[in-house]
Design brief:
Strand order of the largest sheet: 6-7-8-3-9-10
Distance between the termini: 43 Å
Bound molecules: adenosine-5'-diphosphate, magnesium ion
Largest sheet: 6 strands, mixed
Shape: globular
Number of helices: 9
Number of strands: 10
Strand content: 25-35%
Order of helices and strands: EEEHEEHEHHHEHEHEEHH
Length: 243
């Protein structure tokens, strides 16, 4: 569905990303995981065609990524990126209207998606500042789905949320990904989130892939010391005797 082939992205003389070869499978959730600065966002932006690689190529369904292909991708960033001066509803319908979709049709899509994302209907006419962080991210998710994209790319969409809101959204996201059957690429630095949401985890280290596979593969057969340390750094909370 999406492929990075021999991609390198340099800023000046330092490589922010690559060389990296990565294939994203259709109807699967691929998680780009790794410490801050390892190149996750750069990889995601390269997939979206928002940055041009210094070397290598990005393929969308086997073809070089184009403007047309970009339209078929939904993008969600950490703070949601909503327009603060527009209501949630206006944020949702602005792009569909620009693309010539009729207002009634766009409004119908808003109803459908607020159902899907469990967003309260009375929140639709509020401004982003009048919504909670979790609600804003639900709106950002809805907005990315308005045009029914083939792929959904999310860059730390839950990063700014408190743990309870985050856990709620994680479980809703998992249900949504499953029910939509879309190709999803999600960036996180949180191993538990990656394990919970990802069919496949791509653990990155300094711009390259340290290991790709299921969570169990990384846990049980770490490919390097870095992978071992990354997995063991995310200790779970001790539950005490008998639990
Ligand atoms: P991550 O998302 O994993 O935290 P990024 O992809 O944002 O990492 O960044 C990877 C590396 O590239 C970092 O060292 C970062 O400082 C560098 N970088 C990212 N964007 C730019 C830019 N526009 N100019 C210069 N360096 C950049
Ligand atoms: Mg990032």
């Amino acid at each position: 569905m999406l492929e990075l082939r021999g991609v390198i992205k340099r800023y000046g003389t330092t490589a922010a990303l690559g060389p990296i070869d990565l294939r994203v499978d259709e109807a699967n959730t691929t998680v780009l995981l790794g410490p801050s600065g390892c190149g996750k966002s750069t990889a995601l932006r390269a997939m979206l065609g928002l940055i041009k690689p210094s070397e290598g190529e990005v393929l969308f369904e086997g073809e070089p990524i184009s403007r047309e292909a970009r339209r078929r991708a939904g993008y969600v960033i950490q703070d949601g990126g909503l327009f603060p001066h527009l209501t949630a509803r206006a944020n949702l319908i602005i792009q569909p209207l620009e693309f010539g979709i009729a207002r009634a049709e766009a409004e119908a899509r808003v109803s459908e998606l607020s159902e899907l994302t469990s967003f309260p209907r009375d929140g639709l006419d509020r401004y982003p500042a009048e919504l909670s962080g979790g609600q804003r991210q639900r709106v950002a998710l809805m907005r990315s789905l308005m045009l029914d994209p083939d792929v959904l790319l999310m860059d730390e969409p839950l990063g700014a949320l408190d743990p309870v809101t985050r856990a709620d959204l994680q479980s809703d996201l998992r249900d949504i990904f499953r029910s939509l059957g879309k190709t999803v690429v999600l960036v996180t630095h949180d191993l538990a989130e990656a394990a919970y949401l990802g069919d496949r985890i791509v653990l990155m280290e300094r711009g390259e892939i340290a290991q790709a596979g299921r969570f169990e593969d990384l846990r049980d057969a770490p490919a390097s010391d870095f992978v071992r340390r990354f997995v063991s750094a995310h200790r779970s909370v001790p539950m005490g005797a008998g639990s």
